[in-house]
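for the writeup, i need someone to sanity check this before i put it in the appendix. the sequnce is what the collaborator sent (i think, or maybe the updated version? ugh). structure was predicted straight from it, no edits. if anything looks off just tell me and ill rerun, i have time this weekend
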Amino acid sequence: MTAHFATESSREVIRLLEQAGYEAVFVGGAVRDYVLGKPATDIDIATSAKPEEVKALFPMTVDIGTAHGTVLVLIDGEPIEVTTYRTEGTYSDHRRPDEVQFVTSLREDLLRRDFTMNALAMTKDGELIDLFGGQKDMARQLIRAVGHAADRFNEDALRMFRAVRFTSVLDFAIEEETFEAIRAHAAQIQYISVERLKAEMDKLFKGVNPVKAFQFIEQTTLSNHLPLFPRSLGKLNKMVPFRTAVEGWACLMLAGDFTSGAVAKAYKLSNAEKSFLSTVHQASVRRSNSLFTIDDYYHFDLAVLLLAEKWVHIIGHSSQALSEDEITSRKQSLPIQSVADLVVTGKDLMAWAELRGGRWTGEWIEKITMAVLHGKCENNSNNIKEWFLNEFKREK
């Protein structure tokens, strides 16, 4: 029997560590996902070998956190994280341990993990090591803190939000003691950097049951301490599912009646994400007043159109509903999807008008785009040339 999720290179790392007299096992999310029957990624190895011993054993390594016991081993071109068994001291900032102590006991190492399902280990031969009932909790679809939940959350407050994220990603519930500890320590989430929170929210939005996570955020009162969160979940719940994380952010904006700038600032969204939220807001306002026009179908991406359509029906601002297929068909049936689809360029206009280029070429390209879009001329060179020369002479 072998650990089937592991790569040959990762098994070789463990083999060489064991051959040198050290313990070494697979740990973390890869083992959890394997037990759940899901594709395993991010293969991590824990070992009794100290960082300098790992570095001495492998010719190619990279220091990525030796103070915390982690060495990146490069073998056959594959990077594999190898971390020394460790215990952690107090977390005065609720984010990082003040000190790390290396140990030789796997049990001590697993005891510092967040949840029982993440405290599993597996040998290279496929023997599962489950010291805290992780398998039983997964069978019952429960997220349970390892040891005393309050201790785990006092160590790293982000673990509270990770629990919530897993309710969406795995469609699990939070075990009662763990839930109560989150509610008791919810205010500590304010110590967590916005970047770490956003990363968890991105994963939450893409989970199989975001509604469950939203409910836990509200029930545990985490919602009171997040940078920004809707006061009511009704509208947000109706916007599920989200195709992408940025759609989740856009729906959070709409449901909370926030501006795109407020959400972007609160969670440090990228410029591209902020632009998407702003465009969704614009499309939603336009759709609230009327059906989408040809110009709307041209200017807005399909994802934006679909979100805006869903939103106006949730808030009851339109009696005429368009299906996803109808919107997609209308978008795809446009004669052009962008200015790049035009068969002519500014150079053609300069040749036809016998003029040097300038601002006028861009202005006329825009006019031609609208003419093609609204059926005033076809998107071929002869038709566009005839229309352009007639209109150009008329305006001179």
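The chain has four domains: 1-137, 141-226, 232-334, 339-395. The CA atoms of residues 88 and 140 lie 29 Å apart.
thx in advance!!
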